[in-house]
């Protein structure tokens, strides 16, 4: 298996961000990313996708779009469109039609920050997803870095501390978002892929003669990432590599990571039966038993969950195994100590085990 590391959900100066695409790929190279996916608000830009840089500095740029309905108050139903490769914001007032159009175009659709809290002190509204009479979307943004900031900041002082000391802030996806994900899978009986989103803007605040950059792009890119598992290495041919990565994302062959405390490269959650080996995102038959294996980059707290509930927990293993004959939706959560607290470190996509 071959692993690529992406930052997803990034805004440029074409919407409410503070950098160009060219600047962003240079920052991504410094962060050690293989690629980034930009998603400006209600605007898609053609002619920018491709590989940038050379050698170890080579970074893939994909250009998506964050589409939302501006007629709502506050504007809502934010949807990340990836690989649709055309402008679709005219469908923003009809989420189902928008999802259908993205799918028809060969793209992927992810509900952005499906659970979010307001931060009234800074006039930041609640942009949670509202229209649940939908189907056919690819997945959800399980961990939104900036939504987490809004949820853990309880007032001016708390927000200031979290803004000035961002390494102290992140704890993991909101429990409500994790629960929502489990409930959606259970109620719809379908695969729902989880990705991590940085929602990066690199905001600038002025305090008299001083300017402060809040959550710089480089910090975001070193923090919440989506690791995509591919069947073969990147070839260097952009169209081929883009297609391979999109298909891997669509299948849920990926995990959400917080790479700032320690690299998560090399993590794997797999299952074996008489038919072979399966990985995150796969559906597999139980048959005569199924052996799950979790490979961690280092020893830390690890949990195997079944249908959203903790099934088994390990505290000092790099390789964890579990044998079962029970059907269900199995996924992994790992936590790591950092800056005096246990932080969410790895959140796998599920393996769907059926009879």
Structure description:
The chain has two domains: 2-258, Metal-dependent hydrolases (TIM Barrel, Alpha-Beta Barrel), CATH 3.20.20; 268-354, Immunoglobulins (Immunoglobulin-like). It is 20% helix and 40% strand. The protein contains seven helices and 20 strands. The chain has helices at residues 21-30, 95-104, 145-152, 156-164, 175-188, 217-221, 238-251, and strands at 2-10, 35-41, 50-52, 59-69, 76-82, 108-111, 139-144, 193-197, 203-207, 210-214, 224-230, 254-258, 268-273, 276-279, 283-285, 290-306, 309-324, 328-338, 341-348, 351-354. Strand 18 and strand 19 (341-348) form a beta hairpin. The longest helix is centred in the middle third of the chain and has 14 residues, at 175-188. The protein is globular.
Mean pLDDT: 94
Structural class: alpha+beta
Please provide the count of β strands: 20
The CATH first-level class of the largest domain comes to: Alpha Beta
Number of helices: 7
Mind telling me the CATH superfamily name of the largest domain? Answer: Metal-dependent hydrolases
Please name the CATH architecture of the largest domain.
Alpha-Beta Barrel
Number of domains: 2
Instruction: Tell me the strand percentage band.
Output: 35-45%
What gyration radius follows from the Cα positions, in whole Å? 20 Å
Shape: globular
Residue windows where pLDDT falls under 50 for at least 5 positions: none
End-to-end distance, in Å? 27 Å
User: Helical percent range?
Assistant: 10-25%
CATH topology-level fold name of the largest domain: TIM Barrel
């Amino acid at each position: 298996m071959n692993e690529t590391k992406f930052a997803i959900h990034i805004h440029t100066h074409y919407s409410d961000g503070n950098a160009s695409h060219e600047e962003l790929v240079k920052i991504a190279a410094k962060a050690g990313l293989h690629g980034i996916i930009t998603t400006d608000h209600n605007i898609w830009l053609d002619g920018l996708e491709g590989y940038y840089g050379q050698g170890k500095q080579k970074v893939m740029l994909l250009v998506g779009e964050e589409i939302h309905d501006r007629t709502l108050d506050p504007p809502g139903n934010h949807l990340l469109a990836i690989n649709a490769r055309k402008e679709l914001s005219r469908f923003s007032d009809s989420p189902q039609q928008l999802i259908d159009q993205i799918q028809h175009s060969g793209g992927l659709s992810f509900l952005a920050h499906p659970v979010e809290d307001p931060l009234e002190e800074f006039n930041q509204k609640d942009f949670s997803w509202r229209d649940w009479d939908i189907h056919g979307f690819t997945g959800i943004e399980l961990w939104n870095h900036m939504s987490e900031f809004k949820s853990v900041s309880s007032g001016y002082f708390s927000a200031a501390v979290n803004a000035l000391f961002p390494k102290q802030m992140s704890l993991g996806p909101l429990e409500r978002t994790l629960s929502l994900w489990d409930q959606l899978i259970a109620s719809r009986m379908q695969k729902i892929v989880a990705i991590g989103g940085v929602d990066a803007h690199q905001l600038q605040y002025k305090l008299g003669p001083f300017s402060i950059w809040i959550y710089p792009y480089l910090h975001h890119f070193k923090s919440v990432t989506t690791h995509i598992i591919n069947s073969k290495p990147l070839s260097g041919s952009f169209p081929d590599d883009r297609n391979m990565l999109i298909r891997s994302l669509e299948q849920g062959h990926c995990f959400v990571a917080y790479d700032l405390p320690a690299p998560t490269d090399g993590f794997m959650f797999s299952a074996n039966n008489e038919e072979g080996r399966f990985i995150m995102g796969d559906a597999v038959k139980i048959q005569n038993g199924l052996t799950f294996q979790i490979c961690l980059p280092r020893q830390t707290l690890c949990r195997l969950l079944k249908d959203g509930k903790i099934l088994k927990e390990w505290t000092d293993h790099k390789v964890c195994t579990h044998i079962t004959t029970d059907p269900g939706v199995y996924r992994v959560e790992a936590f790591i100590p950092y800056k005096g607290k246990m932080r969410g470190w790895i959140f796998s996509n599920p393996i769907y085990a059926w009879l």
